[in-house]
Specification:
alpha/beta; Rossmann fold; 8 helices; 46% helix; globular; binds nicotinamide-adenine-dinucleotide
Length: 257
């Protein structure tokens, strides 16, 4: 098992990519702290992990509030005694053109997608130092590297996550803390289904997007979880400050026009 004896805190683990990663980490021997704003979904993930005979605990909270991020980290220490892995999945999408954004949306998106990453790391790092090191995995997005139309706030928040991954990697490499980022493209989760469903011509947009993926399918949550496992475990011991694109080849180039 690749994560035997490790303790991982996963934000947004009540759904989608975070849940899939939580299940895989637990299967690989980690004790998992499932952190999510939706308490019922977090508890559901914990039940799934425990049904498989593995260890997990839920903590409900909002990553955009510093006190909640502190409590998430504290839960790892009080329940399992250490913290080795932080995976920052909690995030929200926002499909609104620049001319229609407002103050409230700006802070909601930035506070969830960026502030949450920063403050969870702020509180996790001292605990990781005490555990002899660790791995932080941030979830950016392919749109941080090649923008998609009409989602400037989301693009900005994920671009910042990519940038701060390098900054954090630099600052804590000497403490044996690695910090990497995964940039997925459209992956089959409730978030992506809700996104297309909210559009007037959602089915057409979906088909158009599908046509841009050389591998001809959306990502699956396990595609992301497997990469997160690699970044969490010792197989990636010399990898830090890296952004790993998981997109079925979408950013490799465009098809002939
Ligand atoms: N699904 C995709 O296609 C895709 C593509 C690129 C990047 N991403 C990123 O991957 C991450 C996970 O996405 P997903 O598709 O699994 O989404 P999802 O909506 O299925 O899951 C996100 C989880 O985060 C939780 N959450 C939201 N706001 C929170 C907050 N303030 N505090 C704590 N928890 C909160 C939600 O309750 C939910 O359980 C997000 O950061 C998203 O931006 C997703």
């Amino acid at each position: 098992m690749l994560l035997a004896g490790r303790v991982g805190l996963i934000s947004g683990a009540g759904s989608g990519l975070g849940r899939s990663t939580a299940l895989l980490f637990a299967q690989e021997g980690a004790a998992v702290v499932v952190a999510d704003i939706a308490e019922d979904r977090g508890l559901e993930t914990v039940s799934m992990i425990r049904e498989n005979g593995n260890r997990a605990v839920a903590v409900s909270g909002d990553v955009s509030r510093e006190r909640d991020t502190q409590q998430m980290v504290a839960m790892a220490i009080t329940t399992f005694g250490r913290l080795d892995i932080l995976a920052n999945y909690a995030g929200i999408s926002h499909d609104v053109p620049l001319t229609e954004i407002n103050d409230e949306a700006f802070y909601r998106v930035m506070d969830t997608n960026l502030k949450g990453v920063l403050f969870l790391a702020k509180h996790a790092i001292p605990k990781m130092v005490a555990s002899g090191g660790g791995s932080i995995i941030n979830i950016g997005s392919a749109v941080a590297l090649r923008a998609r139309q009409n989602m400037p706030l989301y693009v900005a928040s994920k671009g910042a996550v990519v940038a701060v991954t390098r900054s954090m990697a630099l600052d804590y490499a000497a403490d044996n803390i690695r910090v990497n980022c995964i940039c997925p493209t459209a992956t089959e989760t409730p978030m992506i289904r809700a996104r297309y469903a909210s559009m007037r011509d959602g089915e057409k947009v979906f088909q158009d997007n599908l046509a841009t993926i050389p591998m001809g399918r959306l990502g699956r949550p396990e595609d992301i979880a497997n990469v997160a496992l690699f970044l969490a475990c010792d197989l990636s011991a010399y990898v830090t400050g890296h952004t790993l694109i998981v997109d079925g080849g979408s950013l490799a180039g465009t098809k002939a026009l």
